[in-house]
Amino acid sequence: MKKGRMFYKTFVPILLLGVGLAVSFGIYTYFQTVRSVIDSVAEEKRTSITQTKNNLEQKIRTIEYAFNTYSTTSSFSEVVDNPITQKDFAAYREVNSQLNYIATMGLEGAEYTLISLNRSWKISNGTLSYLSTEEKDRLYAQYIDNREKGLFWIKTDSGIRFVNTLPAFSTRKEAIALSDISLGTLNRTMRSEDGARIFILGRVLKLKMEDKPIWV
Questions:
Q1: Which tens digit of pLDDT belongs to each residue from 43-66?
Q2: What is the pLDDT, as a whole number, of residue 213?
Q3: Angle, nearest 10°, between helix axes 89-105 and 2-71?
């Protein structure tokens, strides 16, 4: 009897200790595995967001560079100082071909517009139209007057608008280039594989995953 009791007193604590250690190790291993999976998924999301951000920034810089470069050419100076009429096909084709060229390098689905402040005309999406005095004054007030920078973003009802006042390196602005990027184009550009929503935040291009978009 004494040997039996001694056996139980020795065996049971060892058994309980062994079970406790096994359970503890299993729980530790489980949480470490879960944490590793979560960290891996988070890293994949960060990588995906970074790639999306870099892609969008590259497209935007391409649009900026294309308009800035175009504004330094002699053909730009000539065309924005030309009172283009509906019969002036050569000047119209010059502007429209330039906008089409920029469209091939920029974001697919975006609409590009060139406005001559000197001659009060606008070519947008292949259409030539003319500005009234009130429209021209509104453009100056909205995009040029009291603006420290000639390059900025604004929110529109349908998406965002990239505004580039030209010539890029002159304080005397002769034209305005607009790049209208719809929400549909942004959604396609920033779509993630897992369906997570990505938003543009702040005055400088930043991408973040959030519940709601924040526009500044």
A1: 777 777 778 778 888 888 899 999
A2: 38
A3: 160
Report CA 4 to chain centroid distance, whole Å.
76
Least confident of 34-48, 79-93, 117-131: 34-48
**Structural domains of the chain sorted by starting position, each given as residue range(s) with its CATH number in brackets:** 45-209 (3.30.450)
Could you tell me the two tokens for 34?
């879960």
What pLDDT score was predicted for residue 8?
A: 59
CA distance 216 to 189: 21
How many other β-carbons are positioned within 10 Å of the β-carbon of residue 143? 20
pLDDT single digits (tens) 117-155: 999 999 998 899 999 999 999 999 999 998 888 899 888
Alpha-carbon distance of 121 to 203, in angstroms, equals: 30
Q: Beginning with the edge strand found earlier in the chain, give each strand of the sheet holding 121-124 in spatial order.
A: 127-130, 121-124, 111-116, 175-182, 159-166, 151-155
Long-range contacts of range 75-83, CB-CB < 8 Å, 24 or more positions apart?
76/166, 76/167, 76/175, 77/174, 79/116, 80/114, 80/116, 80/117, 80/118, 80/119, 80/166, 80/174, 80/175, 81/116, 81/118, 81/119, 81/174, 82/116, 82/119, 83/119, 83/121
